Please model this.
Amino acid sequence: MARGLNRVFLIGALATRPDMRYTPAGLAILDLTLAGQDLLLSDNGGEREVSWYHRVRLLGRQAEMWGDLLDQGQLVFVEGRLEYRQWEKEGERRSELQIRADFLDPLDDRGKERAEDSRGQPRLRAALNQVFLMGNLTRDPELRYTPQGTAVARLGLAVNERRQGAEERTHFVEVQAWRDLAEWAAELRKGDGLFVIGRLVNDSWTSSSGERRFQTRVEALRLERPTRGPAQAGGSRS
Amino acid sequence: MARGLNRVFLIGALATRPDMRYTPAGLAILDLTLAGQDLLLSDNGGEREVSWYHRVRLLGRQAEMWGDLLDQGQLVFVEGRLEYRQWEKEGERRSELQIRADFLDPLDDRGKERAEDSRGQPRLRAALNQVFLMGNLTRDPELRYTPQGTAVARLGLAVNERRQGAEERTHFVEVQAWRDLAEWAAELRKGDGLFVIGRLVNDSWTSSSGERRFQTRVEALRLERPTRGPAQAGGSRS
Model:
């Protein structure tokens, strides 16, 4: 099994004033909506700005430290990871991939540009949106072509996490790749190791019960295939 | 003080067969020379390839795991950090900034291109060379202009590290910024917090005693200024 790597780096503007609350057990939870615009290079050499809004959760001491100090529009740097959670709602299995901040750092905004959306919420231009992952494929990739003939592959990645003094956990992440990356990825098979550098994006859709659903997934920028090296090495590597 | 952040991500080819040895105390040390070429965007919209060779050190269990399995040319992913060391040699104070790998993952090379240097050593094209740092400036920045009028700033960054069960350590990193980044950085002062995303580069020079010296430093790609947020918050943040 490939070792687990799971690191998120985000810089954006707080779209709204963050939401602070406490669990009955007294754990502080700070939920932020971070908003930014990524500058992406198009195939034809041009650039395009792609907007994003990501909910980020901060727990405990870090949440308490920042809870009252952050306002709408504040620029922040978040270092964290992706956290997969599943639960039951009305007998139905539900899951989500949360962005969990381990650290938050407010940033000075001199010289930085914000855009404003239709609700008057700020987004940071030239934001940062980067995730590093390593894990194993949970299924064979699905390769398709858009009507324009652009290749797109969807991959399921299982990222293992070993925490000191806690059980091993697995985080399930959906990864999408386009064009050359999609055709490279299509050669992989269930169980293969995969290293991903990508951007976090949001998918939204309407469920069969008419409910609006959201899913955080990864758009691949770079893919690599971890191997065991030239010789066959036995045993776990993580 | 800004909290310490210190993460290195490299993908390159092993320029030579790695060097494995043991200290008298039995600690395994694996020294690798990783070689790659970064694709950088020029101001005029073009691209240029910039080569690098970085020595990377892996210790202990990870070193023993990979020691015998890696050959010249093998593609590897390294996740690690920058480690500052100082010592005395013949009464003279010497220091170096080492690249310390926490994890190494060999990668499959299908579809990947290597270049060959004049010594027949391979370098990986479209390599990965990225460092994330946060720390405080050790001095006021030095801003200069090249004969062509290009702004360049040199910054000294102190990155704190807190290890569980070990003393707090400080890693001193030289950071260089160009053009707009240099002029932005010139406004900073000794003691200010700084967040850096950059590439690792090597400086080499000849000392007054005729010895060839090398220094690993960081070329900035992005700079941000961590603040304490809108309200004055007292106390340490890390």
In short: The helical segments of chain B are 60-66, 179-185. The first helix of chain B runs from residue 60 to 66.
